[in-house]
Design a protein that fits this description.
Blueprint lengths: L4 H17 L27 H7 L16 E10 L2 E13 L4 E12 L2 E13 L4 E8 L8 E9 L5 E8 L4 H4 L3 E5 L3 E10 L2 E17 L4 E17 L4 E18 L7 E19 L2 E18 L5 E19 L4 E3 L2 E13 L2 E2 L2 E9 L2 E6 L4 E5 L2 E3 L4 E4 L1 E7 L1
Antiparallel strand pairs: 1-2, 1-24, 2-3, 3-4, 4-5, 5-6, 6-7, 7-9, 8-10, 9-10, 10-11, 11-12, 12-13, 13-14, 14-15, 15-16, 15-17, 16-20, 17-18, 17-19, 19-22, 20-21, 21-24, 22-23
Length: 406
């Protein structure tokens, strides 16, 4: 089997980094229903939350969406509050054999609007021919009732076109491994992603649909209903020999209903809607200097009605408009410095427990990332990114980014 020892060591190092890092849309991986979403999101958003998340990702923000996932260790971890880290971690390792079979491991730590989560996929597959690949994964956990089964079929040609489809059966052994709850309607997740080259442009996108489910828990005395759809579309276009442009748009809807039967929860009727669009230009100004900038529109609407509490309505209506610009200096073969300025106007209308909590303000950040190449053959690098708030004199949080392809 062609599986080099340094990969195993690298994965172990990545896992140690993830544990220390403790962790909104994931375009590259299916997002099935998770039962811990019943508890609701276990952290709050403030006026700077999404500004922090955006500035803790590599800049420029776009231009890489059409590329397929590859083996390696990739991630970011940044301090978004005194007691909170924003993290995204990805690990993928593929081990081939002398025949068509392969083994693949994928780990994902991320967050969405329902909360933070991990996926720990262990799979075995086979190459059907030069273009087609089939893989069967298990999302492995200690409790067998939590194991998801994922089947996946992928196609790619030599011109850079690709397509991947996955079917996920969450908690596939749930009903048979415990006696306190039952899926009256079994959940399934349908996921598609891919990219298409059209002349010099690349169009890419994804769709993720969590089918309607119904879960009845007799021990905690509630019935839970849920469905969700999410999709995104992007394009990378060369405008001139030195100028590129990209646009990404995505949307989400979620409906959730919890009927309490005398247990620990309140009745709840949640409806969530989200949409965002980002546009960006990148200019190869000269051999040692790149210029980039863009704009983003972000909207999140959450309405949670509580029938048992005089039909109380908790809500969050958030609209954010951002502009940003930066430069990337190639200081040497191994060092790049890419400072950026981000200005974000946040208009937030929030009501919880009958109390209004509205905010409307302009927030800014300066990022000062220094990228250090650690492997010239693969382009692997580590980025140290101290940031500063511009709307007040304060530190904006430290950030470490890791890009280590195999």
């Amino acid at each position: 089997m062609r599986c080099q020892g340094f990969r195993v060591a690298a994965v172990c190092g990545a896992c140690a980094f993830m544990v220390a890092a403790e962790l909104a849309a994931d375009w590259r991986e299916a997002e099935p229903f998770r039962r811990d979403a019943i508890e609701g999101r276990q952290f709050d958003y403030n006026a700077e939350s999404f500004l922090h998340r955006f500035t803790f990702e590599p800049g420029p923000a776009l231009g890489q969406g059409g590329r397929p996932a590859r083996d390696g260790i990739f991630g970011t971890a940044g301090s978004s509050r005194s007691d909170e880290l924003y993290t995204r971690q990805d690990v993928q390792v593929t081990a081939g054999t002398d025949g068509p079979a392969h083994f693949r491991y994928r780990y994902r730590r991320y967050e969405d609007f329902d909360g933070r989560y991990d996926r720990n996929l262990v799979g075995v597959g086979a190459r059907l021919n030069h273009e087609w690949l089939a893989t069967l994964y298990g999302d492995v956990e200690g409790a067998k009732e939590n194991i998801d089964v994922q089947t996946e079929l992928a196609w790619a040609d030599d011109a850079g076109n690709r397509f991947r489809a996955a079917l996920v059966a969450p908690d596939v052994a749930f009903d048979g491994k415990q006696d306190d709850a039952v899926y009256e309607r079994q959940p399934y997740t349908y996921y598609l992603e891919g990219a298409r080259r059209i002349d010099a442009a690349t169009v890419y996108g994804f769709a993720n649909y969590n089918d309607y489910l119904r879960l009845r828990d007799t021990a905690r005395e509630f019935t839970y209903r849920y469905d969700q759809a999410r999709a995104g579309l992007g394009v990378d276009v060369p405008l001139t020999d030195r100028l590129e442009g990209s646009v990404e748009a995505e949307g989400l809807y979620t409906t959730r209903r919890l009927d309490d039967r005398g247990g620990e929860f309140e009745d709840s009727r949640l409806r969530r809607r989200h949409g965002q669009i980002t546009a960006e230009l990148r200019h190869d100004y000269r051999a040692d200097l790149d210029l980039w900038g863009g704009a983003r529109y972000f909207r999140l609407s959450e309405r949670d009605r509580r029938p048992a509490d005089d039909d109380r309505l908790d809500r969050q209506e958030r609209i954010e408009r951002m502009i940003y610009a930066g430069v990337t200096w190639h200081l040497s073969d191994n060092l790049r410095f890419a400072p950026g300025v981000f200005l974000n106007h946040a208009d937030i209308r929030e009501r919880e427990d009958g109390e209004d909590d509205d905010e409307d303000g302009l927030y800014g950040k300066l990022t000062l990332p220094l990228q250090i190449t650690v492997d010239g053959n693969t382009g692997g690098h580590v980025t140290l990114n101290p940031t500063a708030r511009l709307h007040r004199a304060a530190f904006g949080g430290g950030n470490v980014q890791v890009y280590l392809p195999f």
